[in-house]
């Protein structure tokens, strides 16, 4: 009986750990911290870096973060567009396909990683 209890506890621990590892939002947060935070901040009201603050990016019009000096290419591409998951996916795959001449020198070629990054960005509201 004691053995059984131990086994159940161990199983619960193992599945719990596996779940934490696979949580796309947690993984996305890690990827975002490692890959975007050198240039971007993510908290509400945090200052812009080399890139604009990304709090609330999903649902925000392109190139609309106040106080950030966007490139001409970025401003030209804005034209009333709003960031959604699909546009962010295209952006992270190849920023130049969304805003030719923009100044962000980063891309993420791995679709699964892009999806995790976007899952995390979705939580920033
Ligand atoms: C080397 C610096 C750098 C890195 C790394 C970087 N960015 Fe950027 N990002 C920029 C710059 C600079 C701009 C503004 C581009 C412009 O004005 O042309 C930008 C713009 C953006 C925008 C458009 C914001 C708006 O207000 O319209 C999004 C979205 C974005 N970045 C997401 C990301 C994500 C997500 C990552 C990580 C996966 C990332 N960036 C990594 C520099 C960077």
UniProtKB/TrEMBL annotation:
Heme: present as a keyword of the record?
yes
For this protein, the record's PROSITE patterns field holds: CYTC
Protein keywords: Electron transport, Heme, Iron, Metal-binding, Signal, Transport
Q: Which Pfam families does this entry report, sorted A to Z?
A: Cytochrom_C
The segment(s) forming the Cytochrome c domain are: 23-125
Q: Where is the signal peptide?
A: 1-20
Q: Does the keyword Iron apply?
A: yes
State the source organism's domain of life: Bacteria
MF GO annotations: electron transfer activity; heme binding; metal ion binding
Annotated protein name in UniProt: Cytochrome c2
Q: Which organism is it from?
A: Caballeronia hypogeia
